């Protein structure tokens, strides 16, 4: 039981820590408002919980269907471009102005995390891998998933907190550069998906 929990936790950290679209969005949100960053993370975790439910009911294989997979890739690509554009648009905003504006869009912030994770084809691949890994290692599925979600909760609360606490040390030019870099990386993820779709 402890082995399953530990392996699940390590799997969760391995999935949560690498720099990807959701972490870029979390860091960008954390520079504005810590609660908004956590809310974005909760949106992403809700999508993970949905995929967990599909695994438990044996339905996640339906998402491997060619047409469904292509549609998810297309939606993910378009949404990444949209987020990149929004971050690029906001690159010059002052922190105080952003916090005031962000309070108006609580549902929007949550939905961005949810949708970005939900339509990301790599999320589906990850959960399929976790399901296979758990079966092959004869681990306790509930303990593995408990470990996974413990790691995700830790990451979506701790990482944004550290970014938020250090935001006042970041000068406006550096912050401008970080926003620009985030926008370019998100667009890069979108282009990568587009190239895969064309090549596939």
Description:
The protein is mainly α and 200 residues long. The protein has one domain. It is 82% helix and 0% strand. Helix 2 packs antiparallel against helix 3 (34-56). The longest helix has 28 residues, at 172-199. The radius of gyration is 17 Å and the shape is globular. The termini are far apart. Mean pLDDT is 83; it is low at 95-101.
Distance between the termini: 41 Å
User: Kindly state the mean pLDDT as a whole number?
Assistant: 83
Number of domains: 1
Structural class: mainly alpha
Stretches where pLDDT is under 50 for at least 5 consecutive residues are 95-101
Number of strands: 0
**Fraction in beta strands:** under 5%
Q: In angstroms, what is the radius of gyration?
A: 17 Å
Number of separate helices: 9
Choose one word for the global shape.
globular
Give the H and E element order. HHHHHHHHH
For the report, how would you describe the main beta sheet? none
Helical coverage, percent range: over 70%
Observed structural traits:
200 residues, mainly alpha
Helices and strands, with pairings:
Blueprint: H1 2-16, H2 21-32, H3 34-56, H4 66-89, H5 95-102, H6 106-118, H7 121-136, H8 141-165, H9 172-199
Helix pairs in contact: 1-8, 2-3, 2-8, 2-9, 3-6, 3-7, 3-8, 4-9
Report a brief summary of the structure:
This protein has 200 residues and is mainly alpha-helical.
